[in-house]
Amino acid sequence: MNTLIEEVVNKIQSSEKKYTAKDFSSDQDVRWCPGCGDYSILAQVQRVMPDFNVPKEKIVFVSGIGCSSRFPYYMNTYGFHSIHGRATAIASGLKIARPDLMVWIVTGDGDALSIGGNHFIHLLRRNLDVNILLFNNQIYGLTKGQYSPTSEFGKITKSTPFGSVDNPFNPVALALGSSGTFVARTLDRDPKHMQNIIKRAAEHKGTSFVEIYQNCNVFNDGAFFQFTEKETKSESVIFLEHGKPLIFGINKDKGIRLDGFTPKVVSLTDGKYSESDLMVHNEKDSTLAFILANMTYNEELPRPVGVFQNIDRPIYENEVEKQIQFSKNKLGKGELEKILNSGETWEIA
Question: Half-sphere exposure of 164 toward its Cβ, with a 13 Å CA cutoff?
Fold first, then answer.
């Protein structure tokens, strides 16, 4: 009998559909500006989806408002195109009601960090098992080029003709400060790195946050070219790898050394310092994660890219389910009619 059951199970498993990237591409025309970095992000997400072995009917993409928020239309999965800044709130309710689903939140620097800022920080502190992809182009692209919460100080736009006097948000530092358990950064023009980061985000149990530098070639073209183009990337970007020293440069001849808690660039060729003197990346060390995050706008230091932090913490929906079961065991299942008619009630004549 056991042999028969095993044969049936094996037959079912062998007949399960093996997805390809094409299976996650919808029949909708992709309507982003030609050359937009969103195309690359969409392609990488579709390429890695088959690796998760999750049925398409168990995957949901939730977005708010903005160029990035068209994403659910282009994924052949379930999805919500919700309202401005509220994708995180809607995704939270969905995940609590259906913890069996794989939930992705696609948002932008304006959608998540301006009108949606409050929902964003509370999703991270609660630590639901969802994944956030934040497309950061440092501009409002959909509404034609106003400055955003991540635009640099002095940014001249249609809404700041004499330059912005706001200091920009650092999305990675904000995520870390909101108790994010998985915090990472990647680049739209580095497909392999992006695929790896997206895979790691999906594997993480808890809220994963990925900031993606995304070029808006119409309203903020070249904002990240220093970090994405072949000529400057090696000297401007440092790739974070757990357990490895922080080394960068076209000849891998520079590194990051901590002077107390202050990171400084040192040469590995003048005989003064060696690899053993360098800062070693540790994804489990929150203090080091903040130090790395604060390198972001320091022009004397390379821009960190990769996983800043990856730690474990109780998952919100699991704790909610435990509380529900505890309440049922202690108080019984309960009846809706009794609840509605309990306490102070009145009738309106």
Answer: 19
CA 133/CA 58 separation, integer angstroms: 18
d(Cα 70, Cα 82) in Å, to the nearest integer? Answer: 10
Q: Which tokens in the block code for residue 160?
A: 């700041």
pLDDT at 153 over 70: yes
**Cα–chain center distance at 278:** 28
Among candidate residues 69, 99, 95, 98, the one with its CA nearest the CA of residue 82: 69
Contact 134/108 with Cβ under 8 angstroms?
Answer: yes
Q: Which of 212, 241, 217 lies closest to 227 in space, CA to CA? A: 212
As a CATH number, domain 18-240+281-320 is 3.40.50.970
φ/ψ of 240, rounded to 5, equals -85, 125
Closest to 41 in 3D by CA, of 30, 51, 52: 30
Rounded to whole angstroms, the Cα distance separating 130 from 316 reads 10
Q: What is the pTM of this model?
A: 0.92
Token pair 């540790």: residue: 282
Domain boundaries, the chain: 18-240+281-320, 245-280
Mean pLDDT, all residues of the chain:
94
